[in-house]
Write a structure and sequence with these properties.
- The chain is an alpha/beta fold.
- The protein has two domains: about 120 residues, Alpha-Beta Complex (Aspartate Aminotransferase, domain 1), CATH 3.90.1150.10; about 250 residues, Aspartate Aminotransferase, domain 2 (3-Layer(aba) Sandwich).
- The protein is built from 14 helices and 15 strands.
- The protein is globular and about 75 Å long.
- It binds pyridoxal-5'-phosphate.
Amino acid sequence: MALSASSGSALPLDRIRLETPGVDHVLHFNNAGSALPPQAVLDTVVGHLQREATIGGYEAADEARERLDAVYDSLARLIGAKAEQLAVVENATRAWDMAVYGYPFQAGDRVLTVRAEYVSNVIALLQLRERFGIEVVLIEDDDDGQIDLAHLETELERGAAMVSMTHAPTNGGLINPAEQVGELCERYDTFYVLDACQSAGQVPLDVGRIKCDVLSGTGRKYLRGPRGTGFLYAGPRALERIEPPFLDLHAAEWTDADSYEIRSDAKRFENWETNYAGKLGLGAAVDYALDLGVDATSARLVALGARLRTELDAVAGVSVHDKGPDRGGIVTFAADGVPSDDLNAQLRAESINTSTSPASHARLDLPHRGLPTLVRASVHYYNTDDEIDRFVAAVKRLTSS
Ligand SMILES: Cc1ncc(COP(=O)(O)O)c(C=O)c1O
């Protein structure tokens, strides 16, 4: 029986593809890098740039004030938060940094993290270890490859200031059990930071259920927004505890010659100057995702990812390396005798977009599993079964000696 990921899908796939101009030009399996945006996002960004050029940047921002405010409402709906708990920033890294570098760590504080933690987060934690003497504790994977919840509980019992976990890693299909981790963090009253950069738009997110204090996300990946956009959710404890590592006249008010007051909402993590066109484009992307319904788009991309894994695994000499009981649209693999960078380049030459995951992006994971650089093929709901067939045929051709 031929596997088909799209059968039974309630999504209007024909319309979705018509609204995605890039699909006429590339077979895009690099959604974990930066997804093809829908036309609505493109029109919003270009439209605002045109207004800036026509009437002036500040004036265009004033004109778009209500639509700019609505971006926060859209993000709030996406993750089940309140608008005042959201900041719109340049990217997921900056969002995460603003919270974690602002956290009032004391020497000896233990931060629990995972093998799937994003490279930049680990670098930051190592720098914080040097600066403040925090201890960074690695929670092991369980036999299925997701965070080992029993190990997490043992370390939480010993006491920890923070759990920092990446929901969906850059280098594989794993979706970590964010809600179960949230339950444990609540039980042990531990501050919980969730990197949802790859999971925002990929799987449904609800901060009330996840019970995280901080959540960081990006615009350009599974949300299909513009590059250079990201967002930060700061829950009540985060707003209570965290002072941004830097302030400006947007994050704080200069109340007297030698005093200032930090604003009370999450916009304290933003800065004054920003990419307004990008911000509006992010809002358009979130609205597009909400209109389609993340439950439906997620079900489709999960099915496409599962089918791609099965088909690739059947290719002689190709091995798929995703782990975890719950997997999304990121598929990573290696081919015997063909370095992943070469295969990635050969695919690119055929207008097939993938990327690679080297050890330097996942030092707690890939070397631990004895794996080389992997090819990362990340599917989205707008991809098709036909594209999977074409992709697998190309991999077969390029890897057969
Ligand atoms: C899991 C994860 N977290 C964070 C980031 C950083 O996101 P950004 O480039 O928007 O800062 C990435 C980027 O690939 C990622 O995969």
